[in-house]
Design brief:
The protein is mainly α. 72% of the residues lie in helices and 2% in strands. The chain has one domain: ABC transporter involved in vitamin B12 uptake, BtuC, CATH 1.10.3470. The protein contains 13 helices and 2 strands. Strands 1-2 form a two-stranded antiparallel ribbon. The two termini are 37 Å apart.
Length: 334
């Protein structure tokens, strides 16, 4: 009898060991969809490996910057539970900071990160103290409208200051690199590498520092964090400031490769929200990987639907994720 029970227990353990974790199933579905999209793109391009490689490289490089913007957005929501609709405008603000410092003062555009990051950090802290803090604890609709108004205010202030004509950041001679047959400019490689490094540094800060531990504690249980001595009001300010700094850094990194206008950040706003939904609200790693997925969806959407906007592919991914796993691919909720 004991032997039979032992055998049954062993069989049950083996059976459980071969079962997929619940969170793995939707990710496998996403991988299957990605393979299908790649196959359709292969057929669409008549088997041109050059076009597919170019879409893959360009999509990954764009996705790195998208992930940095979404990282700030998901961090703000995860801690403050505030939907920051001004994130795209903060990206634009970072672009104009780079434009002014690089063109008027003669700085290398990428060195202006040492200006845009602290400046946007301070601006984000001020905004949280003066505006966002007053609406903390209210319904999401109230804070959403508040941040939307902030974004419109920033855009119109930039319009009054710089006008509506597109601006550009002057750079030196652009080097072009060959990556497995695909073409990648120096500016795009720097933008991707810089975004990746900053995202990893932020992830390390959240995991390995006392401030990061406090931020994660407040995100998990603000009441409990307050009881053990964490100054939650200070953490709210720091978190929103970090989110704004992420947007400013992204604006600086893309300034040499985009046309700078007061509404240039709107596309980053839309894309960042798709990434946050895809990766899971408040999920840092979800924002990083979600950015890469959306960057690829944008490029391969352009191949599959050449007569439409590249954002069509992004919105298709958005709808699929909402249908298959509305809590996000990387959420721990089943």
């Amino acid at each position: 009898m004991v032997s039979t029970q032992t055998t049954a227990s062993a069989d049950s353990a083996v059976s459980r060991g071969w079962q997929l974790p619940p969170n793995a199933k939707p990710i496998l579905v996403a991988i299957a969809i990605a393979i299908l999209v790649f196959f359709l793109a292969y057929l669409r391009t008549d088997g041109s490996s050059l076009i597919l490689t170019q879409a893959l490289v360009t999509g990954l490089m764009a996705g790195g910057v998208y992930g940095l913007v979404a990282l700030g957005l998901t961090l703000i929501f995860g801690v403050l539970h505030v939907i920051n609709f001004a994130q795209g405008a903060l990206v634009t603000l970072g672009m104009y900071v780079t434009y002014v410092v690089a063109n008027d003062l003669g700085w290398n555009p990428y060195l202006t990160l040492f200006i845009s990051i602290p400046l946007l950090f301070a601006f984000g802290a001020l905004v949280q103290k003066i505006m966002i803090n007053r609406s903390m604890g209210e319904e999401h609709a109230n804070t959403l409208l508040l941040t939307l108004a902030l974004g419109l205010l920033i855009e119109n202030a930039l319009l009054l200051t710089f006008g509506g004509n597109p601006q550009s950041v002057r750079t030196g001679q652009e080097t072009v690199y060959n990556i497995f047959g695909a073409v990648a400019t120096q500016s795009r490689l720097i933008a991707f590498g810089g975004a990746l490094i900053l995202a990893l540094l932020l992830f390390f800060m959240l995991q390995r520092t006392s401030i990061g531990t406090a931020i994660r504690a407040v995100a998990s249980n603000p009441t409990g964090a307050r009881l053990v001595g964490v100054n939650t009001s200070r953490i709210y300010v720091i978190t929103f400031a970090i989110g704004a700094a992420c947007a400013g850094a992204a604006g600086t990194l893309v300034a040499p490769i985009v046309s700078i206008t007061p509404v240039a950040g709107e596309v980053f706003n839309i894309t960042a929200f798709v990434i946050v939904v895809l990766g899971g609200l408040g999920k840092v790693l979800g924002a990083l990987f979600g950015g890469l997925i959306v960057g690829l969806a944008e490029q391969f959407g352009g191949i599959l639907f050449p007569d439409q906007s590249n954002l069509l592919g992004v919105f298709i991914v958005f709808v699929l994720i909402l249908f298959l796993r509305p809590q996000g691919l990387f959420s721990s909720n089943s």
